[in-house]
Amino acid sequence: MERLREASPQVPSRGDLRVRQYFDARARLLDRLYDPRPGVRGRYEAWVYGPLRRRFELTFDELGDLSGRRILDVGCGPGRYAVAAAERGAEVVGIDISRAMLEIARERAGQRSVDETCGFVQADFAAYEADREFDVALLMGVLEYLPDPRPFLASVYDLTSEKVILSVPPPFRWQTIVRRVRHRFRSGPPAFHPHSPAAIGACLEDLGFRSWRADHGWLVAYHGRVR
Fold first, then answer.
1. Rg, the chain, Cα only
2. Looking at domain 14-223, which CATH architecture does it have?
3. If both were cysteines, with which of 50, 67, 76, 192 could 89 make a disulfide (CB 3.0 to 4.6 Å apart)?
């Protein structure tokens, strides 16, 4: 596995620092959303966070056996996807700006005995430099924080050879509307920019992906180039 490194030290802007602090403060809470709980609270969370758990299932149904594959998990958060991919045989690099998120991710990788093939880098994706390309990129819960995702997706295209799997909360789904309202009244970052799956799919095709398909807020796009 290539040597993982932190991005070159930079002085973060005030906006970047506030975004990091936002996700640091919510790391444990966001991690717990993946775990079913009993009782009324558990049924409520299954209703509210069902799409989040559903896209995890769809992703690994799509990926199948990952032996020998290289996976880039951008905005990896607490490492749920990264560790699961490593357990299926992949070599994984997870990137996130939140130190607290990555502490949970590294702890999870160690507990699952995949820390040798699942590494994490604290960095903004724009500052990350890969030595080799990846087969697949995962972008879960990332695009809704970007006002213009095209440059981001173009970079992901250049780093991958097979496909990208991402989440795109549909703008008019009730969960997305609730999130939009919460962010509007929240005093701190991050800004919330929901994009339609159709718009993201069209952008991916324009960048060179051969085809794409979506299942509500989950989307996979396949490369169009021959290697």
1. 17
2. 3-Layer(aba) Sandwich (3.40)
3. 67
